[in-house]
Amino acid sequence: MVDPVQFKQGMRRLAAGVSVITTIDGEQPHGFVATSVTSVAADPTPTLLVCVNRNVSCHDLIDRTRSFCVNLLAEPEVELARAFSSTENRHLRFSTHEWRPLATGAPALVGALASFDCELTEKVSVHTHSIFLGKVIDLVLSEGPLHPLIYAGGQFDTLGSRSRAL
User: Fold this and answer.
1) pLDDT tens, position by position, 114-136
2) Contacts with 52 (C-beta within 8 Å, 6 or more apart), sequence order
3) What angle do CA 146, 100, 69 make, to 5 degrees?
4) pLDDT surpassing 70 at residue 34
5) Which architecture, in CATH terms, is 4-153?
6) Taking a C-beta distance cutoff of 8 angstroms, is the pair 102, 115 a contact?
7) Which of 60, 153, 158, 163 is 20 to 30 Å from 44 by CA-CA measure?
8) What are the domain boundaries of the chain?
9) What's the distance, CA 53 to chain centroid?
10) Coil/strand/helix, residue 82
11) What φ, ψ does residue 60 adopt, rounded to 5°?
C-alpha cells in the first residue's frame, strides 16, 4: 500500500487551478480555497464537482444550504487565495474584494475568471472527504485575459512566472 504522505507528495506535482468555494448561511458568507474542482458534464445539465475535506468549516454548511459557488481565480488573486486558505484572518476574507450574490445567494467574486453558481444535487462520501456534485444554475464569465492562478508543489504559481510561496 502507498504511504499517505508519499501520495500527497505525488499529488502536489499535479498543477491545478485555484478556486474559492463560497456559500451563504443566512446573511453570513463563508468560503475556502480548493483545487479539486472538475467538470462532470455539460449536457443535458451542466454539472461540476468539488471535493471537500469534512474538517473544512464550510463542509457542513454546503450540505445544509444545498448551494455553493465556484470562483476560478486569476493571477492577481494570490493574496485572496492565501486569505481563504488560512483560518488566521477568516473574518477578513470577504472584505478585500467585491462580491455579489448569484441565483443561490452564494457570493461570486467580481472579476473571477468564472463563477459557477450551483445547487447541490448529490453528495458522495469517500474516506475523509465528500464529493459535492452541483448543477450549475448561474454562470458569470470574465471578459478579461485568461491568466489563471495555479497551485503546484505546495505553492501558488502562475503560468510562465516564478513561484510564489504559500
Assistant:
1) 999 999 999 999 999 999 999 99
2) 21, 32, 34, 36, 58, 59, 62, 129, 130, 131, 132
3) 65
4) yes
5) Roll (2.30)
6) yes
7) 60
8) 4-153
9) 12
10) helix
11) -70, -30
CA distances from 43 to 68, 83, 114, 135 (A): 20, 35, 19, 11
Nine-digit cell at 45? 445539465
d(CA 155, CA 164): 6
Query: 76: which 3 cell numbers?
Result: 492577481
55 SS3 class: coil
The region of weakest confidence among 40-49, 71-80, 91-100, 155-164 is 155-164
For the chain, the straight-line distance linking the first and the last C-alpha, in angstroms and rounded, comes to 30
| CB within 8 Å of 68: residues ≥ 6 apart | 21, 22, 23, 50, 58, 62, 104, 106, 118, 120, 132, 134
The predicted structure's pLDDT at residue 161:
47
Q: What residues contact residue 30 under an 8 Å CB cut-off, 6+ apart?
A: 22, 23, 24, 57, 58, 61
pTM of the predicted model as reported, rounded to 2 decimal places: 0.92
CA distances from 38 to 155, 159, 161 (A): 20, 19, 24
H or E stretch covering 162: none
d(CA 108, CA 91): 17
- How large is the average pLDDT for residues 30-38? 97
